[in-house]
Amino acid sequence: MADPILSDRELDELSYHLDHLVRPGSGSLGTLAGTAVRYLSGILGAEGVSCEVVEAEGGRPCLVARLSAHRPDEGLLLVASSDPPAVGTTTPRLALEGGAMAAVSLMALALVRRRGFVLERDLVLAVLPGRGPDGAPVLRHLAARHRDRLRCRYVLTPDSVPPRRPGNRMLVGIQVASKAWLRLRVTAVAEPSATGPASAPTRLVRSLLQIESGVLGTRPCAPAVAWLDAVAATLPSGSGAMLRGIQLLGAGASLSRLVSDRDLAATLASISRDTIEIVGLKAGEAAGLPPGRAEAEVALRVLPGRRFEESVRDLQSLLGAEVLVEVLEAVEAVEMPHPSALWDRIGDAVGRALPDATMVPTLSGDAWDAAALSPIDVTAYGFGPLAVLDDAQLSAPANGPGIAPDALRRGTEAFLRVVLGTCVPDAFPMV
User: Fold this and answer.
1) C-alpha distances in angstroms, 9 versus 14, 111, 405?
2) Phi, psi of 401, deg, nearest 5
3) 124, 49 in Cβ contact below 8 A?
4) DSSP assignment of 288-332, as one string?
5) Which of 17-21, 23-27, 342-346 has the highest average model confidence (pLDDT)?
């Protein structure tokens, strides 16, 4: 990449921090609770960056650091994870994602101080325990109790998919939307003495058989249409015409089987349907329930474009009157506008790192941290330091940071160009 942002010494420093943040057992779980937060707090303090350790839901420690340009409502918030990868994690991207975001965000704040940049937007870092559905309540609680600390206009999270080349251009997915995520309880009640078809466990299983396929419905949504448009334009004419035909007919799971690229077909199926998963079943006194009661826990994921309450009502109707469906926990669907000023910045950085790349707006199947922030005018994208790196360039971090120096530089500088270009635009002009 031309005009490197980091010196070789700073790249070595970044690799050292990344090694400490992603090594299994080195983070914020178990007896080492708060280790990563304390480590980052100490490094930021040494750089002269003001930061606080605050408690979120359950008393778990979170770090919030802020460099102020006295424009808090226009700030950029970086969301990272303090959790180390679970021991035995075999997917390098998952093992590295949160730690890479924290380490590179740390370097972004340090560079602002070291280089004497004059910020035009506030730059904020929030390091939280937990990601996805588990982390969303933490961020929601933190935003409610410490709203002034997290005030911002833009958000970056590490949620992204690796670049790939199914056609004539490299595709780099930028997450702009996520399905709603709901944890539901389905309950069947019967007379304690009932047996056979009249018993609570049988009633419950009989109702759950209605959803054994795991697919509740297929319907179009705006992020899926945007994904189809972007991907179809990069494919050879035959494959592109196939995708556009599926788009016109309705992007159903059955139609996606016509796509020859299996990864594209799987993505198309995922972003075009609501899905449900049975997480667990229990019944009777052995499971802590009174006689005549049986329960199932299910996870429901709903595409953007409708309220999740409607999907819950549809599910209740599908399962029938023998059971009761209750919402235990819910995270709303997220759908962000694009393009935007931040989208343009990401496009510039991606183009510098991968000159033949095309940005593709993506829809995730899991709940997203950005859903917990809730301010109407916040624009959030999933774009982290690993977004421009292929999976083949990553390895599990058991014996080191898991990223070769040349790949680490490319991913880091692409992300830094987005962050610093957003907050210090004069020093990082776009092409």
Assistant:
1) 9, 13, 12
2) -70, -20
3) no
4) T--TTEEEEEEEEEE-TTS-HHHHHHHHHHHH-TTEEEEEEEEE-
5) 342-346
In the chain, what is the straight-line distance between the N-terminal and C-terminal CA atoms, in Å? 13
Burial string for 397-411 (b: 16+ CB within 10 Å, else e) reads: beeebbbeeebbbbb
Closest CA to 213 of 302, 263, 274: 274
Of residues 378, 224, 370, the one with CA closest to residue 304? 224
Which CATH homologous superfamily contains domain 8-166+334-427? Zn peptidases (3.40.630.10)
pLDDT, one tens digit per residue, over 150-168 is: 889 999 998 878 888 877 7
**Residue 353, amino acid:** A
- Examine the pLDDT at 255 and tell me if it is beyond 90: no
Mean pLDDT (the chain) is 83
Domain ranges of the chain: 8-166+334-427, 178-331
How confident is the model over 70-117, as pLDDT tens digits? 998 899 999 998 777 766 666 788 888 888 999 999 999 999 999 999
DSSP codes of every residue in 161-211: ---B-SSSSEEEEEEEEE-EEEEEEEEEE--TT--GGGSHHHHHHHHHGGG
Contact by Cβ (8 Å): 272, 224:
yes
Task: Enumerate residues 6+ apart whose C-beta is below 8 A from 44.
Answer: 51, 63, 65, 106, 109, 110
Question: Judging by beta carbons within 10 Å of its beta carbon (0-12, 13-18, 19+), is residue 263 exposed, middle or buried?
Answer: exposed
In which residue are the tokens 């989208």 written? 343
Global pTM reads: 0.86
Count Cβ atoms within 10 A of the Cβ of residue 46 and give its class: 0-12 exposed, 13-18 middle, 19 or more buried: exposed
pLDDT above 90 (res 373): no
Ranges 7-16, 237-246, 359-368, most confident:
7-16
SS3 79: strand
Q: What residues does 202 pair with on adjacent strands?
A: none
Q: Collapse the DSSP code of 15 into the 3-class scheme (helix H, G, I; strand E, B; otherwise coil) and give the result.
A: helix
Q: Round to whole Å and give the CA distance between 406 and 332.
A: 39
Maximum alpha-carbon separation in the chain: 77
Distance CA 387, CA 397 (A): 17
CATH no. for 178-331: 3.30.70.360
